[in-house]
Specification:
elongated, 6 strands, 351 residues, Alpha-Beta Plaits, alpha+beta, two-stranded antiparallel ribbon, 10 helices
Length: 351
Amino acid sequence: MPTLPQRSAAPVDDDGLSRRRRTIETGALVARSFGLISTGVAAAGIGAGAAAVASADMRFVCWAGVVTMGVSNVLAHLGRRRPASRWYPWLSAGQSVIETATITAIVALASRETAETTWPLLAPAIAVAAVRHRIVGALMVFAATTLGFALLAPGSHDLFYLIVVGFMIAVITGTQSSALDRHLRALDETRHALQHQATHDGLTGLPNRAHLAAYADRHTGRPFGVLLLDLNGFKQVNDEHGHAAGDLLLHEIGARLTVALGGDGLAGRLGGDEFLVLLPDADSAVAARVMVRIHDAIRRPVDIGAGRAVTVGVSAGVALRPRDCPADLDTLTAEADAGMYRDKRGRSRAA
């Protein structure tokens, strides 16, 4: 009698890219909040930074920067909450655009109105764009900050240094970020492949025992139906046509079970020629309808190659659990197993 495990491997509910995005947005919130407060304090004429914000134009730009940094923080908060959302790239790009325009305007105006060297403040915008958007983003922000600085602070002697240093920062941080992104994607693909291998049968691609157990656990306390299926004639196929033909047969039966179920439940393979079908919220009428579809699907001839076709039958046992019944999957599987053997003996006597 087949016995399913009580515990299964926990599904992957996160990945490296999502964690990286959360980290990026957390860092952005912290760093930008510091910049927002510092800019606001200087614009208000408080502290050492007040000397650099002497003109009305500079104060206006700084207060506008406070507003735009606040908007960027809202976008960062939304991105941090939903790092896997399809909107995340837009939220991230929006922050990059706002940050680039804000810091370029502040730095260029400060360079034009004071003797302070402010162009190094553009470097973080390039580095952050590299983290968010890899080499392409870094180069785009480098180009935007350089062009903006040249237009807003024409004739500045700092433009040459900005071009040289900014380009170096864009290339170094952009290539490193791109390499890290490729590495994380490769790791995630490997993790997902391993997770699939751990929860699915390698021959049929159907869920395995661990996956079936986890699926049943999610429906505890609800009406639940279990169908245990055993193929009739499978041994003869193996004996007469070889194990390769038997594997083709099992693979095709697995595909047919999935199609026959549609969205009504989950079919999995326990091993050998035994399959398990789980039917959430099923009663006897639902189980009977599903069994008719399964019988019709399995009894059709199966092409096993070289112009050969075989036909197999199926013996089945059914177990049903009403709402709030404490019976677990092992109990239901044992009951269905007993029914399947009664069905198989009945078919043998009839033959």
